[in-house]
Amino acid sequence: MNVNDRVRVRLTPHGLTILAEYYDHIRDQLPASMRGLLKPTGADADGLHTFLLWELLAIFGASSGHGFPDVFEDGALHLVPWNAPTPAGTTVRDTTTGATATYVAHASHVAGRGPAQPAALLHVDGHHFTVDAEHFARHFVAVVP
């Protein structure tokens, strides 16, 4: 297990409150022109939220423990393989910057004169760009509207 692995959790009402407060706090620290770029994670069709493990600990760690209200239903964390496929058209968020993009497809990226490397093709504001596949797997999570 790695702190950059993705985990899925079903949040309790208290957990949803903690998540909303976290995003409000982060958004308040951004310049007004950037506040719209920060998109909170939402539940998927199964009712689960996806986070990187370190992100989950940063958001919920201080609100978890003996004597605290539960933030996850049944206390369950569902691990997601780091190389699990992302469906085309999924809106993704970079957990290091908060920026969002649309996942287009698996691609190849050539840096300099080196060999082609696996990559993710993303789309933002009318532009396509590639991100190293491992970086994508470790730092991007799906955003559910």
Automatic annotation (TrEMBL):
Which superkingdom heads the taxonomic lineage of this protein's source? Answer: Bacteria
Mind telling me what this protein is named? Uncharacterized protein
